[in-house]
Design brief:
Blueprint (H helix, E strand, L loop, with lengths): L2 H17 L11 H12 L8 H17 L10 H9 L6 H21 L7 H74 L4 H30 L16 H10 L3 E7 L7 H21 L4 E8 L3 E8 L18 H11 L3 E6 L5 E8 L4
Parallel strand pairs: 1-2
Antiparallel strand pairs: 2-3, 3-5, 4-5
């Protein structure tokens, strides 16, 4: 409820419950009593903005009502009770304790120095009002703790999403750029080697470098464009997929790697995420062959099982394959990025040396069964 609405309800209960209470001993309710009750209850509306001033006004007016001898068999204390509860503020424990002591002292002084109809009521009045203040302070502390936990959880979630996004961007950059850079490196080596004796082959290698660098720039522009469109609808440009694998294989062949390709995905279309993941697996596998086994024979096979897409990329090891200390091909992050991508799609990846020599990748990507 809004503070004004709460104040209106408290005003009605406090004033009406006192004015229309059954006649009792004590000073009859007059205009002064009504003013004191209205101020004590109306302070509820201002506790959020001015808790000290509101509670002080309510406490003084209620204590004055009691000291002047108006009857106490009524709801005259409700305004102070609610104001004390709502004035509770997280972290203001010293202030809350001071108000509790002041409440006890004021009602004790009023019972001694004033003209209350029942001096013994000061005790239960103090207990009730202090209980309301204590409950309000405890509720404020508990709410503040909940808010801190919620904010902490929100910050952790934001950091987790930032980390995931950074990892995704790094993976995309690696997948997009790594292949083109590897092609450029190999073709540059060829051009340098044959430049003097076979200029035609050097020219062919330079043309391949031009094509690879153009593709890399295009892909980089695509990624940067997506990063700049953070507040815009997602790009509708088609993502890489198995339809582009023949072009990828042709680029690898230009680098001097013999590649055999067999793709059988059936007539049904693949989900975009699966199609992209399959392309990236093949791209990374062939990039590793270009980098680490340029003279090897590579085989790429893609087949569709009833509930999965199975991808195999192998090389026969005619050129030794560099293997990192942990058993992965190369020392980069390509295989780790592939595993993360495939794991995100719900699949699995096996990578390692073949018993007969060479290196093999075997990926399984799940498909929804009809």
């Amino acid at each position: 409820m809004r503070p004004v609405a709460i104040a209106a309800v408290v005003e009605f209960i406090t004033v009406a419950g006192t004015v229309f209470a059954p006649p009792n001993r004590g000073r009859p309710i007059d205009a002064l009593a009504v003013v004191l009750l209205v101020i004590a209850a109306g302070a509820v509306a201002f506790t959020q903005r001015w808790p000290v001033q509101s509670l002080s006004a309510s406490l003084l007016c209620t204590a004055a009502y009691y000291a002047l001898g108006y009857h106490t068999d009524s709801s005259f204390f409700i305004g102070l009770l609610v104001t004390g509860y709502r004035a509770g503020t997280a972290g203001a424990r010293v202030r809350a304790a001071a108000f509790m002591l002041l409440t006890v002292a004021l009602f004790a002084a009023a019972s001694r120095l004033g003209r209350p109809v029942d001096t013994s009521s000061a005790l239960w009045m103090s207990v009730v009002v202090v209980g309301g203040q204590l409950a309000g302070q405890a509720a404020a502390e508990w709410q503040a703790r909940i808010n801190r936990q919620t904010e902490h959880a929100r910050e952790e979630e934001a950091l987790r999403r930032i980390a995931e996004e950074r990892l995704r961007i790094a993976r995309e950059l690696h997948d997009v750029v790594s292949h083109s850079i590897a092609m450029i490196n190999v073709q540059a080596g060829v051009a340098v080697h044959v430049m003097d004796e076979r200029p035609d082959e050097a020219r062919t290698a330079l043309l391949a470098i031009k094509t690879a660098s153009r593709d890399a720039l295009r892909d980089l522009r695509g990624i940067l464009g997506l990063l700049r469109q953070s507040d815009e609808p997602e790009s509708r440009s088609p993502a890489a997929g198995l339809d582009e694998v023949p072009s990828l294989v042709e680029n690898v062949r230009r680098a001097g790697v013999e590649v055999t390709l067999h793709i059988d995905t059936g007539k049904a279309s693949l989900p975009t995420s699966i199609d992209l993941a399959a392309y990236r697996v093949i791209q990374e596998g062939l990039t590793n062959v270009v980098r680490h086994a340029p003279g090897a024979l590579a085989k790429v096979a893609v087949r569709r099982a009833p509930d999965a897409l199975i991808i195999d990329v192998e090389n026969d090891g005619r050129t030794p394959v560099a293997v990192a200390a942990d058993g992965r091909q190369g020392a980069g992050h390509g295989l780790a990025g592939m595993r993360e991508r495939i794991r995100a799609a719900g699949g699995s990846l096996d990578a390692g040396r073949r018993p007969e020599g060479g290196f093999a990748l075997h990926a399984t990507l799940p498909l929804e069964t009809e």
